Amino acid sequence: MCGIIAYLGEKPAYPILMKGLYRLEYRGYDSAGIAILNKELTVIKTRGKVSELEHFINGKNLHGTIGIAHTRWATHGEPNDVNAHPHYSQSKNLAIIHNGIIENYGTLRKELIHRGYEFRSNTDTETLIHLIEDIQIKEGVELVEAVRIALNQVIGAYAIVIISKNDPDMLIAARKSSPLVVGIGEGEFFLASDATPLIEHTKDVVYLEDEELAIIRRGHELKIKTIKNKEKTPYIQKMELNLSALEKGGYEHFMLKEIFEQPRSIKDSMRGRLNVKKGTVKLGGITEYEQKLVNARRVIMVACGTSWHAALVGEYIFEDLARIPVEVEYASEFRYRHPILNEDDVVIAISQSGETADTMAAIELARDKGATIIGICNVVGSSIARATDAGSYTHAGPEIGVASTKAFTAQITILLLMALTIAEKKGTISRLRYQEILTELEQIPEKVTETLKVNDQVKFIANLYKDSRNALYLGRGYNFPVALEGALKLKEISYIHAEGYPAAEMKHGPIALIDEEMPVIFIATNKGTYEKVLINIEEVKTRKAKIIAIVTEHDERVAELADHVIEIPETEEMLVPLLATIPLQLLSYHIATMRGCNVDQPRNLAKSVTVE
Ligand code: AGP
Hints:
By secondary structure, the protein is α/β, with parallel strands linked by helices. It has 3 domains: 3-244, Aminohydrolase, N-terminal nucleophile (Ntn) domain (Glutamine Phosphoribosylpyrophosphate, subunit 1, domain 1, 4-Layer Sandwich); 248-429, Glucose-6-phosphate isomerase like protein, domain 1 (Rossmann fold, 3-Layer(aba) Sandwich), CATH 3.40.50; 452-599, Glucose-6-phosphate isomerase like protein, domain 1 (Rossmann fold, 3-Layer(aba) Sandwich). It is 35% helix and 24% strand. An 8-stranded antiparallel β-sheet has the order 3-2-4-1-10-9-11-15, covered by helices on one side. β9 and β10 form a beta hairpin. The longest helix is centred in the last third of the chain and has 21 residues, at 406-426. The protein is globular, with a radius of gyration of 25 Å. The site of 2-deoxy-2-amino glucitol-6-phosphate has 15 residues, from α9.
């Protein structure tokens, strides 16, 4: 997704902006640009990586204490130098950077061309800056007012920052549906798409709300007003993140670091919430809504991608423990499906970034229909976290790698704690069983540490299969979503086509794909339908596929059938996904690195998909 960074203060803007762009790379992008004001408003932008922009700028005179910079993930207009941001206005007195989509840009563009405006790019963003300048000239108003009027004509999502050659002491920002954070320092201000580029500068942040404008003036307090011209008091929050969370800590990639962080991230998601000695689970963020969950006629989980896989695990957990009917919906489908919802329904929205547009839209739809909405997010202060009635943060720490790993296991942990809370209140679980699960859950971080020891074995296996053209992941029950997640990981970072399937379903079609060229990865742990999975493995073996199996430690039966077995510690069936997913994360990571893929920033992907 696009990344925004802007600065106004007393220091040279260029190094701050470039470092900020590097911090935002993880969001995924295909071009980058910068604008710095020092009497002249200089815009330099190029297709490609931030390092290429830096190389291109090398030596050019980019001094000044005010500037904006942007990494673009193309939506309208192909990724090239011209479509990269920032975009000048017609007069070149203004420049804009933007994250989002102006849905009615076609109409606006036609009108502006009719009025003599010439477009340099094919972007919706350039339409906006021309519209702002047109209003400023036509209405004879100040730039802030022109921006406010223009945004009332815009349909769509935006996070924008505007810089003006005629006002070197001001930046104007605004947001709707796309995130934007203001950092407040000593005599300096920062703007960014998320908190990561701000951490080394300030802990004081203001998360802009939808349809809010921020007016930043050198030497003045931050001013905020709505696009309907209503003054707002800035709500300054303290950021909890620290710088080390943004470094690779000696790992080659953020993804590998985050895979190995899971003992701690799972522990952090339980910290202060699980107390085995007292036999209690306390999710403070949903206390007021526990009864709503207990009385829920139905729980609907909405999410995308990996978070949707976590929701599938959650479905099994909630139905097993709390005996509540659960439906899991792709947010992108749910939002257009005219779903039947009412006040007795509880919607649980799961999102690592808390900015996924489809999930956000699903929440808005559910709210319009009167449902209660609970959020499970990883990014504090994110849009989804602020849009829900209540919720729990996963506290997995910043997840920089585009491929989600520690967020997935943290989401499952929160879903377990939520289901245990409800089950205990509803009496759908005996005290003994409740205590058993709590005790085992507390052991999981150590069991993840144990599981991570398979890394070298997985790396060896990865080398055997790195040139595969396809792969099939099969699991049943709690391990079916794990199969889907394993396939997604392989797809998104190694670009090998992979499919996850319920193991039994494979007979109804995919078995036609099986031959000696097709590696089949089974999650074949010893609980649930283990005996049935053994039969499925036989079916695949007779068709000469190579079989990699994730098994419970000391399993011998699968070892007789599979080409490779990767052992994970024994645990409760509903906790197996927290362990079984680890070798699959490692398998995809090693295959991708062996294939020379950009593991942390896979092609075409964004960390947070804040557009439809
Ligand atoms: C997961 O590896 C992908 N990067 C992607 O599917 C992601 O899970 C999806 O875009 C949802 O993101 P969210 O959890 O931030 O809402």
